[in-house]
Design brief:
The complex is a heterodimer of chains A (181) and B (222). Chain A is mainly α. Chain A has 9 helices and no strands. Chain B is globular, with a radius of gyration of 30 Å. Chain B has 9 helices and no strands. The longest helix of chain B has 31 residues. The interface between A and B is large, with 48 and 42 residues.
Chain lengths: 181, 222
């Protein structure tokens, strides 16, 4: 554990590494939530978060830190998860979608958990390219220009995906709510 | 029909609103993630030290060659000096052969030893497990502590404590030592061993004064 303390107190001026670590720490909740929303299985999320950190660290020096970090983090998460899916060809069946037990807290009502489960199950039914745009726009409230930039698509493409993704999501929510997913 | 659509839209909006909420990850998971991130920083730093780009490698080669030449030259010079020097007091002409390093003149600056890389805390942390790579060791640690955490969540505090003790024996200074100690305190508290829990919490605070787990432990040990 000694190295942990050293990493904390090595210097008074933050190094790029410590700044990157602080940013990762600040947005860790968001990273985990994003990975879950994108359909990562619970047991994969920590490893995927680490991969995100490694990419973030590698690009930290060239990153414009004056801009919001979340769209960028989402872009990394999206690419990492897509690559994993291509490599492993895993698709998570709806029945296996799990709500992270560690996030359970008294304030999370049963209804809230159910709605999150419905949302995740519905999102699972969207192709990942449209799912990403819907999550970024409708859940993370990221402007379409940033979405397009971070997913390396045109604005027109982003709008098209959003429009189609929303319709698919509405249908998927209805299906999941009825129980015929 | 219109009413049905409105209800569906409302329901969808409510679901989306719920989906916007970002729940915090648990302290244990956070600490573990940050610990892994720090290890990644250390590994990256070590890798950048050992494998530099071509230009750096070229300079490294030049440096090594210069160091070797310097050491050999110094050794040769020292040997010549020694051979030219008057015989020792014993006057018995026994050729004095030293190992190369000790033939250096005391004045000769000794090239500094390569600094021990600070990166592999894992290697340092598990001296008894030379056969395990850092990643394997970490995986083993994680598995063991996950079992302990599951036992804790199931309120099997004695099992938690025994698994935590096993982790302590196998990885006394492991990368998850902080999480292990936190879990031990929580398990002690859960088992009603309040005094032990308080004492363990106090020593935890001394050992890990900056731990993100401290607030939670403070709540667990009133």
């Amino acid at each position: 554990m000694g190295y942990l303390r050293l990493a904390h107190s090595s210097s008074s001026t933050p190094t790029p590494e410590s700044a990157c670590l602080a940013a990762f720490d600040a947005d860790l909740d968001y990273i985990f939530a994003t990975l879950h929303r994108l359909g990562a299985a619970h047991h994969e999320v920590e490893d995927l978060a680490q991969e995100i950190f490694v990419v973030l660290l590698r690009h930290w020096d060239t990153l414009d830190t004056s801009r919001p970090l979340r769209p960028y983090l989402f872009g990394i998460a999206f690419r990492i998860l897509s690559a994993h899916r291509r490599k492993r060809s895993w698709e998570i069946p709806c029945a296996q979608i799990d709500i992270e037990s560690s996030t359970t807290s008294p304030e999370n009502s049963l209804q809230s958990k159910q709605s999150i489960a419905v949302l995740r199950a519905a999102l699972e039914q969207l192709p990942i390219s449209r799912r990403a745009v819907v999550i970024m726009h409708d859940l993370d409230e990221i402007p379409i220009a940033d979405i397009a930039k971070n997913l390396s698509i045109t604005r027109f493409g982003a709008y098209a995906r959003l429009r189609k993704g929303r319709m698919e999501l509405a249908s998927a929510v209805r299906r999941v709510s009825r129980g015929d997913h | 029909m219109e009413r049905r659509e409105m209800n569906t839209d409302t329901e969808l909006q409510w679901i989306l609103d719920e989906g916007k909420k970002i729940h915090p990850v648990s302290d244990i998971v956070r600490a573990r993630s940050l610990s892994r991130a720090r290890a990644a920083i250390a590994t990256t730093a070590a890798a950048s030290r050992t494998s530099s780009p071509t230009m750096g490698r070229r300079w490294l080669s030049v440096g090594v060659a210069a160091s070797v030449a310097f050491v050999l030259g110094a050794a040769a010079w020292a040997t010549v000096q020694r051979l030219q020097a008057p015989a020792p007091v014993s006057s018995i002409a026994i050729p004095h052969v030293d190992p190369p390093a000790s033939t250096l003149d005391p004045e000769t600056p000794i090239p500094p030893l390569p600094e021990a890389p600070p990166a592999p805390p894992v290697v340092k942390a598990h001296p008894a497990r030379h056969s395990l790579s850092p990643q394997e060791s970490y995986t083993a640690e994680t598995k063991l502590l996950s079992r302990a955490q599951r036992a804790y969540l199931a309120k099997h505090f004695s099992i938690t404590l025994s698994l935590v003790a096993e982790h302590g024996r196998k990885f006394p200074n492991g990368r998850l030592a902080e999480e292990r100690e936190a879990l031990r305190i929580q398990a002690l508290s859960g088992a009603g061993r309040t005094e032990e829990s308080r004492s363990a919490a106090a020593s935890f605070a001394r050992r890990f004064p900056r731990s993100v787990l401290l607030p939670r432990l403070g709540a667990a040990t009133p």
